[in-house]
Structure formats: structure tokens, C-alpha cells
Amino acid sequence: MEISQLPYRHYNRTPFAFDLQRFAGDKTEEPTSKKRADAKKKGQVGRSTELNTAFVLLAGFFVIKVLWEHIYHSIAAYTTYVFSHPNQPVDTENIVRIFIGIIELMAQTALPVMFAILLVGLAINVFQVGLNFNTESIGFKPDKLNPINGFGRIFSKRSLVELVKSLFKIAIIGYFLYRFLSEQLLAMPQFIYFDLATSLGQVANIVFKMAFQVIGVIIVLGILDYGYQKWQTTQDLKMTKQEVKDEMKQTEGDPQIKGKIKQKQRQMAMSRMMQEVPKADVIVTNPTHFAVALQYKKGMVAPVIVAKGQDLVAKRIKEIARDSQVPIVENRPLARALYAGAEVGDMVPSELYQAVAEVLAYVYRLKHRRRA
Q1: Which one of 3.65.10.10, 3.90.226.10, 3.40.1690.10, 1.10.260.40 gives the CATH number of domain 269-370?
Q2: What is this structure's pTM?
Q3: What is the pLDDT of residues 135-178, one digit of tens each?
Q4: Range 243-258 average pLDDT
Q5: Angle between helix 33-41 and 196-237 (nearest 10)
Q6: Alpha carbons 85 and 288: distance in angstroms, whole number
Q7: Is the separation of the CB atoms in 208 and 61 below 8 Å?
Q8: What is the largest CA-CA distance in the chain?
Q9: Are 314 and 290 in contact (CB under 8 A)?
């Protein structure tokens, strides 16, 4: 059966069409450096709070462990001093003295720990996001008071991911704490046979071991979270093709406007160049395709090219020269060499001095004959 003999059947279906515009709004492009810089100014950077927490805890517990003997003896000495004078009257002088003593004790024991925590906290923040201080992220924004936006943030994909991360972190840390304490609980009852100093020392060792194990786990989780936050920030900052084009227009300028500006600049340069043609001493041509206007004044090292052009521009230069009675000399090799070897405003190349001098001498002889 031929194709023309097949019965016609009408199907009430919409034909499939692959619309590329459907994907035009997809954020598939990597964020530009300007996009990242603007986001950084707004505080939108990839940073892990778990990593901050881990290193702050590490610094605090490490300094406490190093200064443990000093901290213990300072607190013990001051406590002994306070309770060894129970009969002191409760008056303003004694209260002030006790208060000053507490401040001095805190300065001796807590300030080194606080200083270490502050220093490490700043260092880990600089490591993650660099030196970035801005007030935009803490500024008042009315949309933050909108309950609808608030519910949107609470039940967003990011919040769900953060919830899963928190549950995972609690489970991992809880597992390590359970393993550690289950091993140490069997040894704790024998602490009752030790004196207070020895018992406190043993408890401190257990606490430090437990803290450093947990901190090690948090550091590993923080490093993983830091990588995830960097990746998530990049995904959030991705741009559509149209956004990339718009940004390029803003930073580099609209190509059409830039083209018009360049065209206007060329026109202005051409106009200035044509104004110099009547001041030239001679026009060297080839005779149709190239024209170069030369000017020489007393005191110049060499003649200067004040105008040059090809085809239509060369024709216009010769027309202005005729109207201004500037001599036109045909010299094909010299015209081509001058056009290719120098720009407007440059001196004649040294290898063309002899040829240009002969042309200028010829022109000067012509002028002298006309005057005679």
C-alpha cells in the first residue's frame, strides 16, 4: 500500500515540543567573583559553627590542663583563707576585700583560658572566611518579623538538613561518651579511699580524657560540615545564564553602548586628524589606496605623521589637501612603508629618513619656484 492510500486519522493531541527557554532560568552557572564578593559583604559565606566550637573547646580544655596545678592551688588557697577566718565581722570592708580577692582569683585562673579561647576563635574564623567585618547581617530587616517568612525558614530544606546533622552529631557524640563512661565507671567507686586532692586529680584526668575524645569527634564532624557548608554556599550563589550576562553588562558595560562609545571616539579622532591635514607640508600617496600627511617644523628631530588613511579616508585626506593647497606627492613604496611603520603622532621611522628628506626637498623646491 502506498503512503497516499493510508487512511487519515486525526489524533487530538498536542505535539511534543522541546522548549529550550524552559531551562533558561535554571541556576547552572558557577558564581562569579563579584557575586561571591557581594555575598561575603552580606555575611553569606561558607563557615561551620561545629568547627568553631571544636577548636574553642580544644583551646579551653588544653589551657586548663596545662594550668591545672596552678588553677587548683590558687582556688584551694583562697578557699582555705576564706573559711579559716569564720569569725570576721560581716561589714563593708570585709565584703570588699573578699570581692577583690575573687576578682584577683578569676584574673589568675580564668583570664588565660578566656584569652586562649578568644584568640583561637578569631583564628578559626579568619581561616574559614578571612577578614570579613560587616554590619549588614545584624541590621534590622522588617521581613524577619514576617511570620510567614519565619515558617518558611523553619520548614525549609536547609532547616531539615541542619536537624538531621544535629541528630547525627548527638548520636555520634553520645556513642563515644557511652563507650568512655562505661569503661571509667567501674574505677570510680575506689575514689572514696583516696584523699580529696588525689580524688580530684583522678576525676580531672577522666574529664580531660573524655573532653579530648569528644573534641576529636567534633573536629572531624566540623571538617566534614565545613566542606558541606562551602558546597552549599556555592549552590546557593549559582547564577542563571541571564544573571551572568547582566552582571557582565554592569561591570564591563553594555556591548552596544561600548560599541557606540568606540564609534564616537573614532569619529572624534578622525575629525581631529582631518583638522591637522591643512597644517601638513606634504601628502605622500600610492596614489589611490594610501595617503600619509607629513609635517616638519624647525627644531624637530624628524618629520611627524599628522594623518594617515586607507581607501575612503585616504581620498578624504587628499580632498582636504587640495582645498588647502598642500602638495601631494605620489610615492607608492614610501606611502605603504609610512602607513605600516608608524601611527598618527609618531615620528618617521629612521630607516625612511632619506626617502622622506628627498620628498620634502622636492616640495620645498616647488614652493620656492612658485614664489620666484
Answers
A1: 3.40.1690.10
A2: 0.49
A3: 555 555 565 555 665 555 666 677 787 788 888 888 888 888 88
A4: 70
A5: 130
A6: 116
A7: yes
A8: 134
A9: yes
Q: CA nearest 274: which of 334, 330, 314?
A: 314
The three-state secondary structure class of 295 is strand
Contact 358, 325 (CB under 8 A): no
Task: Give Rg (Cα) of the chain.
Answer: 43
Across the strands, what pairs with 328?
A: 283
All cell numbers assigned to 259: 560599541
DSSP labels, 72-91: HHHHHHHHHHHHT-TTS--S
Cβ neighbours around 337 below 10 Å, total:
20
For the segment 186-210, the average pLDDT, to the nearest whole number, is 77
Tell me, what's the pLDDT at 119?
92
- 349 in helix, strand or coil? coil
The closest of 217, 230, 211, 215 to 48, measured between CA atoms, is 230
Task: Give residue 268's Cα distance to chain centre.
Answer: 38
Backbone angles phi, psi at 46, to 5 degrees: -85, 105
pLDDT digits 0-9 by tens, 220-246: 988 888 888 888 888 888 888 887 777
Q: With pLDDT > 70 as the criterion, what percentage of the chain qualifies?
A: 81
Residues 56/117, Cβ–Cβ less than 8 Å? yes
- In this structure, is the dihedral angle defined by the CA atoms of residues 82, 85, 87 and 92, taken in order, positive or negative? negative
Residue 239 β-bridge partners:
29
Angle at 324 between CA 318 and CA 329, to 5 degrees: 45
Other CB atoms within 10 Å distance of the CB of residue 182 = 9
Domain with CATH 3.40.1690.10 in the chain: 269-370
Cα–Cα distance between 221 and 230 in angstroms, integer? 14
C-alpha cell at 88: 570576721
Rounded Cα–Cα distance for residues 74 and 104 (Å): 10
